[in-house]
Design a protein that fits this description.
The structure is a homodimer. The first copy, chain A, is mainly alpha-helical. Helix content of chain A is 64%, strand content 0%. Chain A is elongated and about 60 Å long. The two termini of chain A are 19 Å apart. In chain A, 41% of the residues are buried. The model of chain A has no long low-confidence stretch (mean pLDDT 90). Chain B binds a DNA duplex through loops.
DNA sequence: GTCTATAGCCGGATAGAC
DNA sequence: GTCTATCCGGCTATAGAC
């Protein structure tokens, strides 16, 4: 699963006027970073505000000055990452211009993810959790998975037009199967990191559904 | 992910002597069934004993007469399903004797799973959850995933010897990629059941990694 | 074997002093 | 903006009457 491809200098919050707010802004970002760690390690329900507060070295109640509820904090984390990944892929648009570059992009994202285990855990864990009734980010993840399948499919459609997909492979199947394999192998990796190589599995899958040697 | 392939008449508990215990034994099984439903819907941490007790129509504290702790109840659920699935596949042994039958067995299990959404949710959710530090079934799932990969690989090894695997596909890669795709597509299905067809994805994956028309 | 009562803990969240 | 004190809720689990 591809949480993001680019680096962290988040462009989301509007630039503050001057000195007094700078520290506050930094605090806010520290909290978001800590939330990624904690939600990524324990999921949303089991992740506690106390642990997040401990990580940034403040009192749990102080968090409410930055985020009104625990739910809002989670949503802020997800929105922040979305903003980052939107720099890479616009919804509905192919992610790259040249069909030949599509597999390489997938692998680049996967490789980059390896350096962000917290984010991986966050999205895989919370996605699974969010399928349960009454979960606050249920709708968000339904929408997210639809969007990812659409983005992937538009990339594979480029390849399809160029005759680069293996016989019988539709862009839609390529999209959902790639996403599925990615998520599933990542889950095996979370359970036992030494057991599988996510990037290598993705690479092999891509060479099977395309006619390229990736 | 393949929780089990056979039906529910659990062989696990030894047969009780006579009438007085029959009801108690039934209660125990009712509780296990309710636990599958609740843990399958909410996971382990968010699943409450109260909800399980409500489902079987008894007081939450009465559950402790059958299972000493919540953790023991979860473990009993997992063990029970393991016993069922052991009827189908013995650890280390190929799951079927004829190499040509291997893909069909996978599809049969997947099709059977469709009628057991609670079980699916249980294993997918709790597996994801169990990757978190300090989770009571962490070790269990590490072992379980190893075992499944081994079982799958021994089935694919049969096919390999018969020359039925596609060029470049090893039994080990066939195993981990099939498991991964299965889990990942199942996760998409849990998030939005209408979005993907698990059996069909599995079927296509199997026809790509083998030389059979499955 | 099932219940009531309750302990004990920890979670998120509020009020208000500083 | 950060803290202390505190409320309120749900949770697992225990004790003990019936």
């Amino acid at each position: 699963m591809p949480p993001s491809a680019a680096e962290s200098p988040s462009p989301t919050p509007p630039p503050r006027r001057r000195g007094a707010y700078a520290k506050s802004e930094q605090r806010r970002r520290d909290i978001l970073a800590a939330a990624v760690t904690v939600f990524g390690a324990h999921g949303y329900r089991a992740g506690s505000l106390k642990e997040i507060a401990d990580l940034v070295g403040m009192n749990p109640t102080s968090l409410f000055h930055y985020f009104p509820t625990k739910e809002a904090l989670l949503q802020a984390v997800l929105d922040e990452r979305d903003a980052v990944s939107d720099q890479v892929a616009l919804d509905g648009e192919p992610m790259v211009s040249r069909a030949e570059d599509v597999p390489a992009l997938f692998l680049r994202i996967a490789r980059n993810n390896e350096s962000l285990p917290g984010i991986i855990g966050l999205y895989t864990l919370v996605a699974a959790e969010s399928s349960t009734p009454g979960h606050p980010t249920r709708e968000y993840f339904i929408e997210r998975y639809r969007r990812i399948r659409r983005q992937f499919a538009s990339g594979f459609a480029l390849m399809h037009e160029a005759g680069l997909l293996a016989p019988g492979i539709t862009p839609e199947y390529a999209a959902s199967s790639t996403l599925g394999l990615w998520d599933g192998v990542q889950m095996q990796w979370m359970i036992e990191p030494e057991a599988v190589d996510v990037v290598e599995h993705l690479r092999r899958h891509l060479s099977m559904i395309t006619t390229l040697e990736v």
